UniProtKB/TrEMBL annotation:
It holds the Pfam family SRCR. PANTHER family: SCAVENGER RECEPTOR CYSTEINE-RICH TYPE 1 PROTEIN M160, SCAVENGER RECEPTOR DOMAIN-CONTAINING. InterPro entries: SRCR (IPR001190), SRCR-like_dom_sf (IPR036772). One of its GO terms (cellular component) is external side of plasma membrane. Gene3D superfamilies: SRCR-like domain. The keyword Chloroplast does not apply. This is SRCR domain-containing protein. PROSITE patterns: SRCR_2 (PS50287).
Length: 79
């Protein structure tokens, strides 16, 4: 993910049960990327570069299919 102002960039991962894991193998809508950017204090919007391969390796895939609403203010996950 890259913020609109290019100040924030990196992999989106989740720390769960003592292990870092991948987030989103499927496409993420723009509104969801915006919610994530705001929550990470990276501005109001950003982009997800789908041409970059996932950073998988031996990491588990903890989360997929994230879809935020326009009214969401943060990305809250329950496992």
């Amino acid at each position: 993910m890259v913020s609109e102002d290019h100040q924030c960039a990196g992999w989106l991962e989740v720390f769960y049960n003592g292990t870092w894991g991948s987030v989103c193998r499927s496409p993420i809508e723009d509104i969801t990327v915006s919610v994530i950017c705001r929550q990470l204090a990276c501005g109001d919007s950003g982009t997800l570069n789908s041409s970059v391969g996932l950073r998988e390796g031996s990491r588990p895939k903890w989360v997929d299919g994230i879809c935020c609403q326009k009214t969401d203010t943060s990305l809250a996950l329950s496992f």
